[in-house]
Design a protein that fits this description.
By secondary structure, the chain is of the alpha/beta class. It folds into three domains: 11-106, no CATH class; 229-311, Diaminopimelate Epimerase, Chain A, domain 1 (Roll); 319-661, TIM Barrel.
């Protein structure tokens, strides 16, 4: 579809459009559906076009209305596009190619389509609401109509109620707010869903003694198979130092793995190290590190890719079990308004879990996967060819399940004691003195440059994990190299997290068309920041922690994600984006970096849809888009921002279907 908005004199551009069609093909039929008298249309048409109606039928994408040749236009069509559906043929030396679906639309008015009593009725109509469309003008309307899986009209109660028929379900919103479905642009559903059945400490700040007590309680409540691995997840790693004796005192009879909330640090007891064959002779993997004592003996502390070496020794869980766990997780996510996710790290195993839900008609979520570049096992030169095959293999459904993005880790996390984020200047010690640690570089710049250029040329969205300012700079340098080699890109490349960004790099996001994929639920003065970060980077750099406003002011497009694991609550992220605080009365984290409610709602709807390359069907509530939307119990645009986290989702709709409804009080 080509869309032209011609407010004044349409005929020159209209004629040019038709000439463009006929210059490449022989038009054998045209269906007219136009507010312009046919004689006027004829006068605008090149002589090569036949002046008669065809026998084709047409479906208007924007209004979802159907017509057959010869039907008289209703009065409602006074604001609808001229539609040309032409069956064309192209001649070649050897054969003729039939093209059946060439459609060109020329909109002859700036007005939006309007409903008519002559139009088929809607299946669902919402009236008397505050429907935040998130369209380009951020219009707020009273009413919306849905037929099948598609929004067919938005506007006033009066104009939309015309579409109510005898079988239409009508919802009186009574002033309630409706938003597009939440789109999480950075999350780990398939990997995190099994945590629902593990010993989960929910990110609570904890000492080694408290950890031992909480783990003992989990074992007492659910001991599981005595031969199976015992897993503790969502542990606050800030300041937590565990020795191998500490770990073995918690559990010595079976392998145990403790994983931090950020999943970048973990701890393994002696039985787990033995099962994974980790000894003093085991070398650190690329992008990972084993903690060791002065004699080189592993102490059980694992950073980044060292964790993978241990987890590969664990028994592979059943796909059906993981699918059931993911189904439960998605049910909980829909209750918080989420309708689309970008999984920020998938492999074949995780895609199999998604596919199992899809095959059994339980995938009530739009899923886009990002294939992970595993530096430890995949040579950089082999990655893009593998990613291309992965994309082909998992192109299951363009609307619900695909894997056309790639994920690259450039560093780890910034908090003490892990400190694997890549910084431009060294970390400080506890006394504020510079150390010799700037964090590791997971990839040489030249390798990264060529890797990103090759992936960009192959049409992938490149999704980069970068916490520290040096990692951010490295990513932007690589994108600049790719633009120089490949030219401008519409691949929707993005850098996730952006915990610390050097001010010199703010304008480069817009200049290089790189999306700032932010997790602003973290933008608060919690232990991760107060105890684990601020003392070790100093006040000058700290001003640019989660620099949302600086990025926005520099023209960066901000997309929102939650990075679950820890939480998938977009409303908490919205609150923290505005308040930069743990709660009312708490000191904010550099409030000059806050953004407004309009910005953060866009980040979790239309901007996130753009990041996922699905803004043509989701992200805003406009005629022609899919019916993904949510009903809220409060007006988040008008209430005290400190109350946003308490927002309840009353109903969630996906593809026009209600997939969650809150229990009636």
């Amino acid at each position: 579809m080509l869309n032209f908005r011609l407010a004044r004199d349409p005929f020159p551009k209209f004629q040019a459009l038709l000439c463009n069609i006929t210059s490449h093909s022989k038009v054998v039929g045209v269906l007219y559906w136009s507010p312009i008298p046919l004689q006027g249309v004829y006068s605008a048409m090149p002589a090569s076009l036949p002046k008669n109606h065809s026998t084709f039928s047409c479906c208007l994408q924007e209004s979802n209305l159907r017509s057959a040749a010869g039907r008289k236009p209703s009065r409602a069509l006074a604001l609808l596009p001229v539609v040309l559906l032409a069956a064309t043929t192209l001649s070649t030396q050897q054969h003729r190619i039939q093209l059946d679906d060439l459609a060109k639309v020329a909109t002859l008015s700036d007005a939006d389509p309007v409903a008519s009593a002559a139009d088929p009725p809607a299946d669902l109509v919402l009236l008397h609401g505050k429907i935040h469309t998130e369209d380009p003008k951020r219009n707020v309307v009273q009413a919306m109509a849905v037929r099948g899986n598609t929004i067919i009209a938005v506007g006033t109660d009066q104009t939309v109620s015309i579409l109510v028929g005898p079988h239409t379900r009508t919802i009186d919103l009574r002033g309630q707010v409706v938003l597009p479905g939440i789109i999480d642009a950075h999350i780990h559903p398939a990997r995190s869903a099994p945590d629902l059945d593990k010993c989960n400490l929910h990110g609570d700040s904890i000492s080694a003694t408290e950890l031992r007590a909480r783990a003992a309680k989990c074992l007492k409540e659910n001991s599981g198979d005595a031969k199976s691995w015992f897993e503790v997840v969502q542990v606050d790693a800030v300041g937590l130092l565990l020795t191998l004796d500490d770990l073995d005192s918690i559990q010595s009879d079976r392998p145990m793995l403790i994983v931090s909330s950020g999943s970048h640090r973990a701890w393994a007891n002696s039985a787990a190290l033995k099962a994974a064959d980790v000894t003093a002779a085991t070398k650190d993997p690329i992008g990972g590190h084993f903690g060791r004592d002065t004699n080189g003996i592993p102490t059980g502390t694992l950073d980044d890719n060292a964790i993978d070496i241990v987890t590969k020794a664990m028994p592979k869980p059943d796909v059906d079990l993981n699918a059931a766990q993911l189904d439960r997780a998605f049910t909980a996510m829909r209750a918080r308004g989420i309708t689309s996710v970008q999984d920020a790290g998938v492999d074949d195993r995780l895609m199999q879990v998604y596919k199992r839900l899809y095959d059994t008609h339980r995938l009530n979520m739009r899923v886009r996967g990002s294939y992970v570049f595993d530096k430890a096992v995949i040579p950089a030169k082999a990655f893009v060819p593998q990613a291309i095959e992965f994309r082909k293999k998992w192109a299951i459904d363009p609307y619900f399940l695909r894997a056309d993005a790639v994920k690259i880790f450039l560093d780890g996390v910034i908090e003490y004691p892990t400190q694997t984020a890549a910084l431009l200047d060294p970390y400080l010690d506890a006394a504020g003195r510079p150390t010799d640690n700037r964090g590791p570089s997971y990839l040489p710049q030249d390798t990264l440059n060529h890797l990103i250029a090759e992936a960009d040329a192959a049409g992938f969205t490149i999704h980069i994990h970068a916490i520290g300012d040096r990692a951010v700079r490295s990513a932007l340098d690589a994108f600049a190299y790719s633009r120089k080699v490949n030219g401008p890109s519409d691949n929707r490349d993005q850098i996730a997290h952006l915990e610390l960004v050097d001010p010199a790099d703010f304008p480069r996001f817009k200049a290089l068309a790189v999306i700032a994929n932010l997790q602003l639920d973290w933008a608060e003065r919690d232990d991760w920041i107060v105890k684990g970060t601020l003392p070790y980077i100093g006040p000058d750099r700290a001003r640019y922690l989660y620099p949302a406003r600086s990025l926005r002011n520099a023209g960066a497009l901000i997309a929102g994600g939650t990075d679950w694991g820890y939480s998938f609550d977009a409303f908490a992220a919205m609150e923290h984006a505005i308040t930069r605080s743990e709660g009312r009365g708490k000191e904010p984290l550099f409030p000059e970096q806050s953004i407004g409610i309009e910005d953060i709602v866009a980040a979790h709807t239309i901007n996130a849809a753009y990041a996922l390359k699905q803004e043509r069907i989701t992200g805003s509530l406009e005629a022609g888009k899919r019916g993904d939307f949510i009903l809220l119990d409060r007006d988040i645009f008008a209430i005290d921002p400190f109350d946003i986290h308490d927002t309840k989702v009353l109903a969630t709709y996906l593809d026009g279907r209600e997939v969650y409804a809150a229990a009636a009080k």
